[in-house]
Amino acid sequence: MSKRLITEAKRTPERAWLVEVSAVVLQQALADCDRAWRAFFDSRSGKRPGPKIGPPRFKRRSHRQAVRFTRNGRFRVLGDGRLRLPKIGDVKVAWSRELPSDPSSVTVIKTAAGRYYASFVVAVDEDAASQEPLPEAATGIDLGLKDFAVLRGGKVIESPKFFRSLERKLKRSQRELARKQRCSANRERARLKLARIHERIRDRRDDWLDKQVKAILEENQAVYVEDLNVKGPVRGRGAKSLHDQAFGGFLSRLESKAERRGRTFVRIDRFFPSTQLCSACGSLSGPKGLAGLKIRLWQCGCGAVHDRDVNAELNIRREGQRLADVAAGHAETRNASGGRIRPDTSGAARNPLQGRNEEPLGAGAAHAVL
Ligand SMILES: [Zn+2]
């Protein structure tokens, strides 16, 4: 393929432009293609674990472009901070941080808004990073519609105001683009404008999310979250607000950072009734459905009065602790017996609802009962 698609293709008039870039870049594209097909065939034959994957497809046309240079492509970080790229030249770089070690490859990305990024692959020693002392607290995280999230003790992370103002800008810009004639200069200008807004949203959202994640992990040794379960009217895919979109990024960031910093991270089944469950007696007496969304305070049949979010956080935290204990229990059993034991597939771990109604929970020992 390398011979046909690179060497010979370069000689044809319609592919002559391939000569303009470094051959390493073309070889990398072939290597990516090779990896995708290999993964597909391995998945078919059962050699590859995990869900079945399909054959590679052509990339959706977008305005984002990327090339990857490897070490044998002779890219170099120069002493004066510039980056030398084959067939491109020495490029000035605004470094976001110092490279911790010699990079093995660099990917240069041109975004839809026309900005360029260089992304390096480096090897780092992880052990040195995880030497910090662990805090003792644990928290559940209740993601919500009104506030972004509620933490232990009713501590609220508000949804940032810029979500709303940027959302308005985005809508307007999208409408403008839709009105422009195809392939016109006006359309290209409108496209760039929209792309810039998208990038600004991404930058500000990522920055904000990083700060929230950092603050949470600084204070907590364990975090328990509900798997993405946006409470509220189910809207069409296109109508998701920036607030809703941010949840996915929040959870994946939290998970990876928690792992890197040696914290416990547990996802709870999205059907766990964190809002309905009374944290005092364990009955499912809380607000339900759409009507329940507006209820902030409620009283259970057992007499307990709950703030909806505080109650939900407590339920999430207990369920998370229980799941973490179950996992730790397995590890201990395995160590003691020296052999592998079958993971617990009984209802307790799989179905948090089972046994709830017959077996009310004590307030202080929720996870011990189950
Ligand atoms: Zn109750």
The beta-strand count equals 13
Domain tally: 4
- What is the terminal-to-terminal distance? 59 Å
From the alpha-carbon coordinates, what is the Rg to the nearest angstrom? 26 Å
Strand content: 5-15%
Describe the 3D structure.
- The structure is a single chain.
- The chain is of the alpha+beta class and 370 residues long.
- It folds into 4 domains: 1-57, no CATH class; 58-124, no CATH class; 133-221 and 228-259, no CATH class; 291-369, no CATH class.
- Helix content is 39%, strand content 15%.
- It has helices spanning 2-8, 23-45, 126-129, 162-179, 185-219, 242-260, 308-337, 347-350, 366-369, and strands spanning 65-70, 76-77, 83-85, 89-91, 105-110, 116-121, 137-143, 149-150, 156-157, 220-226, 264-268, 297-299, 305-307.
- The protein has a 5-stranded mixed β-sheet.
- Strand 3 and strand 4 form a beta hairpin.
- Helix 4 (162-179) packs antiparallel against helix 5 and helix 5 (185-219) crosses helix 6 (242-260).
- The radius of gyration is 26 Å and the shape is globular.
- Residues 337-370 have low confidence and may be disordered.
- The site of zinc ion has 8 residues, from loops.
Question: How would you summarize the topology of this molecule?
Answer:
Elements: H1 2-8, H2 23-45, E1 65-70, E2 76-77, E3 83-85, E4 89-91, E5 105-110, E6 116-121, H3 126-129, E7 137-143, E8 149-150, E9 156-157, H4 162-179, H5 185-219, E10 220-226, H6 242-260, E11 264-268, E12 297-299, E13 305-307, H7 308-337, H8 347-350, H9 366-369
Parallel strand pairs: 7-10, 10-11
Antiparallel strand pairs: 1-5, 2-3, 3-4, 5-6, 7-8, 8-9, 12-13
Helix pairs in contact: 4-5, 5-6
The structure holds zinc ion.
The site of zinc ion has 8 residues, from loops.
